[in-house]
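Purpose: get a first structural picture of the assembly so the mutagenesis plan has something to point at.
Setup: two entries, given in the order below. No constraints added.
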Amino acid sequence: MEREVGTEFKVRLPAFEGPLDLLLHIIHTEQIDIYDIPIASITRQYLDYLNLMTELNLDIASEFLLMAATLIYMKSKMLVPQPIPEIDKEEFYCLRTELTTQLLEHQKFQQAARLLREKEKEHSTLWSRSELTSAAPPRQEDVLLEATVFDIVSAFYKVLESRKEEKPLHLLPERYTVEEKMEEIVERLHQEERLGFFNLARELQSREELIVTFLALLELVRQQLILLYQTRKFRDILILPAMKKGAKGDGKGGA
Amino acid sequence: MEKGELKAIIEALLCLSSEPVSMEQMAKVIDEAEKKRIKEALNELIADYNDDNRGVKIREIAGGYQIVTRPHYDRWIKKHFALASKVKLSLPALETLAMIAYRQPITNPEISAIRGVDSTGVLKTLLEKRLIRIKGRKKVVGRPLIYRTSREFLIHFGLKNLSELPTLEEFEQIITSEEKKEEEKEP
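Result (structure tokens, whole complex):
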């Protein structure tokens, strides 16, 4: 039953998301009976993989180590001098059955995920009206990515960093309000069709104004009055007017 | 109302709708009493689109009907509208989605237990893509959020409804039959 493994690691190591993926991979490549898992050999193979992953400098999540500990614990139960006390034996089989159940469950969902992948592929080349963005169409050849909140925040941080103010603490009355800034942005979008965030930021006087402007942008997105796009990660953010359902005109303004 | 007229009305409705239109919505707009004939007209219309080899077809999805372009014309659509190919989900994301689809309502700790990995990051991505939704909190320690699949989930995978997916037991059978085949191959 014991099989020598670890002799020939192929060049490519599939990405294992978690310990169960790795165990299933070993079970399939070694054609192990999932209902009768040879704990000693699978533990060794599992650890071989972990070592390899360490050598390749892959981050090993704590879940992998937890599983390693469980496997070693189970193995130790079988290693106590013969005859094995009943209690240990029982615990061993209990743990092993639990592992099998978990693996079988995981396998079913892996299969389901594969089916979803097929469905997704099948439908990825069909287009409906809802998939055409309601934004004003891009003017240039740039491929627009929809920016996530994190992209926006990181772009904001970049601008903020370039404006470090190291002055003693003064408490000043609020000079800018989010509402004002929102109006200002909407007004400008009417005239300019689109704005670049970096450009917009450059015109602003202080960090305070910058922060208020940023909050105004987020609020406008939330209210679906504008759309934010990026041409590439960490690049400038494009601010476009959103076409509200039933709103007049095509949002291109321009006067 | 004449069948041809019904077909034309349905076609017009579907043509301009961005979201799938349900039978109920159509009946409400056209004539509640004509439901059966509307359904017939719709089926004929679907058949017409199929017979004529058009660039578009009508598909049943997420409890409604929708006009979509045929796969063959993907290339030209993308060119004209400057669209990138649709984003494909990662395997962990698909696995998590499968768990939610089959086990909903389900919480993060429950998902993580089955997957054997922490799923917080994946769940966040799925929420951002609007493929899943938060449906309240479970009344257990820590009050974890409860997740469900959304309508977008059905649309993304081209499903009419959740019951169109095979059952988990069927997957079990697929797995065992695959294993048998492999064993047979072995001497």
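The mean pLDDT of chain B is 88.
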